[in-house]
Amino acid sequence: MQVRVATYEHQADVCRLWTMLLNFYRKKASPEILERSFRYAVDHPHKVLIFIIMIEGVVTGTASLHLGHYSTWNDNYYGHVEDVIIDPDYRGRGLALILVAEVIKAAREKNLSRVELNALNDNLPARRLYEKLGFTTDSVAYELKLN
Questions:
Q1: Nearest to 79 by CA among 48, 100, 36
Q2: Is 0.85 topped by the overall pTM?
Q3: The 48-55 sheet, strands edge to edge
Q4: Mind listing the pLDDT tens digit of every residue in the chain (147 residues)?
Q5: 2-118: which CATH topology?
């Protein structure tokens, strides 16, 4: 098993996993948008890092770390974790824990003051995972679609 930052060669695998995630959230995005988002991240590693977890050369999961959010109240930068998904055929092996722990490790290495993420209220497996890793919440996330 190996966790690493995705490169261009992983585009199809990551986009496949992102499509699974979109289906889970009942959202849609065209393959072109997913591919463009992937290429943006690979081209801008100072803004976004896409991590993958591989078993015997197979990409089995992904998570993204968005960098460079500036916190006005502590004069430091923080990150946001997104797009955490493990292929259903590989779940139940602790891969998400390993993957997100590596994302947190990278955030520490980048000297971020904190990382944030969102989870659906009823996604109890994800919430248990994040709490096991030390995430806490005292707020509610809101979203306003602008386009």
A1: 48
A2: yes
A3: 2-5, 48-55, 58-71, 76-86, 115-117
A4: 999 999 999 999 999 999 999 999 999 999 999 999 999 999 999 999 999 999 999 999 999 999 989 988 888 999 999 999 999 999 999 999 999 999 999 999 999 999 999 998 899 999 999 999 999 998 888 889 898
A5: Aminopeptidase (3.40.630)
